[in-house]
Amino acid sequence: KEILEKYHDLFTLQWEGVIGKMYVPSQAEWEQLLTKCSAFLFYGMERFLSHVLLNRLVAMNITKCHLMILLDLVRSKQSYQRMIKSNVHKSSLLLAIERPTEAAMLLSLAGVRSLAANQWYTTLQENAGRLHTLSESLFSIGRTAGQTVRFLQK
């Protein structure tokens, strides 16, 4: 919310989505957000692809999405318990596709042009720092997505 307020006048007038703990988006809502966005930011718990039905994602055309930022792979005791319950019904192949490298390939094949994502599990605080740095770099300084990712790597 702090970042939305800070950059509200610059770029966020056209932003839409789900913020905070409002509710869990439905599959239809995920599809609508993904197919009509030019940029997509996910800042949440566990793996992004665990929130979206993969068989529906593969059929989506996400070519309008020029940049996708996935600040995922955060684990809490509650999110881990939810994932264990959810993973019981998934095959080992389906679980493998949700991993970071496989997710990047799948999203690229679905049409996402640029993707920045975590490669391993992290904390909410570390992702908050990344989101702050990303926002500052992209919106205030005016770096490109590539320059911003390179800056984060350092």
From TrEMBL:
Highest taxon in the source lineage: Eukaryota
Biological process annotations from GO: axoneme assembly; cilium movement involved in cell motility
Signal peptide: none
InterPro entries: CFAP46
Coiled-coil annotated spans: none
PANTHER family per the UniProt record, alphabetical: CILIA- AND FLAGELLA-ASSOCIATED PROTEIN 46 (PTHR15977)
Protein name per Swiss-Prot or TrEMBL: CFA46 protein
Source organism of this protein record: Penelope pileata
